[in-house]
Structure to design on (141 residues):
């Protein structure tokens, strides 16, 4: 998967006690991620390459994930009416960038954000943030 053979988290399925397991997913964990760039590209390419290698070798790796959080303050420009709208736009931009990196390999990307959180700082500036997972997987058969 990596040159040094490591991933942040590997999910294994063990069919029976005493038998070798099968890796089903790899997960890369990041702290904050808000813009497409080198960090996103590097991690998505790493996940893509692992999935592609698994497909070529008839492996059992079914999906890869990039877990992170994304957050924004109140937009200074009026392009977005609220931090929530800006958060959605930034999230879509990340998902679109990841999709572009894996599309030619027959993989699909989806973004899971189970909930977003809204708040205000003491100076009354609003903010929004969300725990997020980019899932890169083989398309449904």
């Amino acid at each position: 998967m990596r040159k040094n053979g490591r991933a942040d988290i590997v999910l294994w399925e063990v069919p029976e006690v005493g038998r070798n397991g099968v890796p089903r997913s790899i997960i890369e964990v990041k702290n904050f991620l808000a813009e497409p760039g080198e960090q996103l590209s590097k991690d998505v390419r790493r996940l893509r390459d692992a999935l592609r290698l698994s497909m070529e070798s008839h492996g059992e790796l079914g999906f890869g994930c990039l877990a992170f959080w994304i957050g924004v303050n109140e937009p200074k420009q009026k392009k977005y009416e609220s931090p929530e709208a800006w958060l959605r736009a930034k999230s879509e931009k990340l998902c679109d960038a990841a999709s572009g990196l894996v599309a030619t390999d027959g993989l699909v990307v989806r973004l899971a954000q189970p909930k977003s959180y809204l708040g205000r700082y003491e100076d009354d500036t609003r903010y929004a943030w969300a725990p997020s997972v980019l899932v890169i997987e083989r398309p449904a058969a």
In short: The chain is about 30% helix and 35% strand. The radius of gyration is 18 Å. The mean pLDDT is 88.
